[in-house]
Specification:
This protein is an alpha/beta fold. It is built from 7 helices and 8 strands, in the order ααβαβαββαβααβββ. The chain has one domain: Vaccinia Virus protein VP39 (Rossmann fold, 3-Layer(aba) Sandwich).
């Protein structure tokens, strides 16, 4: 790695995803899997937001008045729905190609999103009410530093939402042996050895000062497609918030 690069950026991973930028918004293209995952991920985020801030579950803009950060945003598949949910969205990605496509697409949709090229370290002291990073931590160079950066960016009373594949035989089979071999996922997207188990990710988050409040599986069946479940063997989402200390 370049000595001047941020600790969390893996240049090989960045180049891989940057090469997919122009095709990112094609639901049948190289990011087709993300398009299929997005509705399920958004449902989880909406439920987590409503639970955290006592929302009614029916309003169209549950994030109105709140700042949201999408880390590893790609070309904006998540950032745009977050903006439509009412958030003031900042979205960052280590691939300049992704940011260029994201900006152009958001402009075409009439959405105002603060897209930035860079790593989590580039945010300095900025904080956000919601910090979200989906299917990203398995691609960074230093997961511990990455989590520390996410926690630094979380405002008091805020909510952290992450998702990542679990390191199990099922995830290797589904995402690499089948997914990448049959073309559903671009070859070279995943390194199974970099996947984190829920226990490992929970330990990183709690060491950084947050408390994990939920872990939910993301599963697939031919009948249901992708759906939330109790089974975390393939992939999972989690939420965390700052540990609340009792008054002394």
């Amino acid at each position: 790695m370049n000595a001047s690069a941020p600790d969390t950026i893996d240049p090989v991973e960045t180049a891989h995803f940057g090469a997919m930028a122009a095709d990112w918004w094609n639901p049948k293209g190289s990011s087709a899997m993300l398009h299929r995952l997005n509705p399920v991920r958004l449902r989880y985020i909406r439920d987590a937001v409503d639970a955290h801030w006592h929302g009614d579950g029916v309003g169209f803009k549950p994030l109105a008045g709140r700042r949201a950060l999408d880390v590893g945003c790609g070309a904006g598949l998540l950032a745009e729905p977050l903006a439509r949910l009412g958030a003031s969205v900042t979205a960052i990605d280590a691939a300049a190609e992704n940011i260029a496509v994201a900006r152009a697409h958001a402009q075409g949709q009439g959405l105002s999103i603060d897209y930035r090229y860079g790593a989590i370290e580039s945010l300095g002291d900025e904080t956000f009410d919601v910090v979200i990073s989906l299917e990203v931590i398995e691609h960074v160079a230093d997961p511990t530093a990455f989590v520390a950066g996410l926690v630094r960016a979380l405002a008091p009373g805020g909510l952290l939402v992450l998702s990542t594949p679990n390191r199990t035989p099922l995830s290797r089979l589904a995402l690499i042996t089948i997914g990448e071999s049959l073309g559903g996922i671009p070859k070279g997207t995943h390194d199974w050895h970099k996947f984190l188990t829920p226990e490992e990710l929970t330990a990183l988050i709690e060491t950084a000062g947050l408390r994990v409040t939920d872990v939910t599986g993301l599963s697939f069946t031919p009948i249901q497609g992708f759906h939330l479940s109790d089974n975390v063997a393939m992939d999972y989402l989690l939420t965390a918030k700052r540990i609340e200390h009792a008054p002394s």
